[in-house]
Amino acid sequence: MMKERQYTNRENEGESTFGITYNKGYFMNINGYRISVQFGYGNYVDSDIRYGREPAVKLAVIDNPDMVIDASMGFSVWQSNFAEVMIDGVNGDTIKNTSEGDMVFGWCSAECVAKFIGCIASAQPEEDIKAAINQIYESNR
After folding, report:
1. How many CB atoms lie within 10 A of CB 69?
2. In which element (H, E) is residue 12 found?
3. How far apart are CA 120 and CA 6, in angstroms?
4. Per-residue pLDDT tens digits of the chain, which is 141 residues long
């Protein structure tokens, strides 16, 4: 019988400040916002990463020796030149990419991600940062 996959390593309730997701991205909770930065298979990133030129790998784990996972889990270091970013607002709304009508900002450079983080970190309580986030994205394409 396969053991159910655990969502998080933490036993406490709520989400921690930092998290990683399947060796292909991370999220951070900053100033009431959650920014998710993903750069793995299927994300809006480098085409060789996005479309998975690396084959899926079989990872032997105690609970499921036949478990097949995507390629990112088979590497100690996973890299990409671009990342896909999603930012959840204080009230749970996702800040939308207005130029593409999407919930994520694709093909973001490291500089763009850093500016997103700076904008979030410097936001004042109750400040609407949607326009600023979209301006950062548009100016870094």
Report:
1. 14
2. none
3. 29
4. 444 445 577 777 677 889 888 778 999 999 989 999 999 888 888 888 787 666 555 555 555 655 556 667 777 888 899 999 999 976 678 999 998 889 999 999 999 999 999 999 999 988 899 999 999 999 998
Cα(101)–Cα(7) distance, integer angstroms: 29
Euclidean distance between CA atoms 1 and 62, whole angstroms: 11
Cα–Cα distance for residue pair 8/91, rounded to 1 Å: 23
What is the number of helices (H) and of strands (E) in the chain?
3, 7
Report how far residue 129's alpha carbon sits from residue 119's, in angstroms, rounded to the nearest whole number: 8
Would you state the torsion angle of the CA atoms of residues 97, 103, 114, 126, taken in this order, to the nearest 10 degrees?
A: 80
pLDDT of amino acid 135: 97
**In three state form, how does the secondary structure of 32-86 look?**
CEEEEEECCCCCCCCHHHHCCCCCCEECCCCCCCCCEECHHHHCCCCCCCCEEEE
Identity of the residue numbered 41: Y
Query: What confidence score (pLDDT) does residue 24 get?
Result: 86
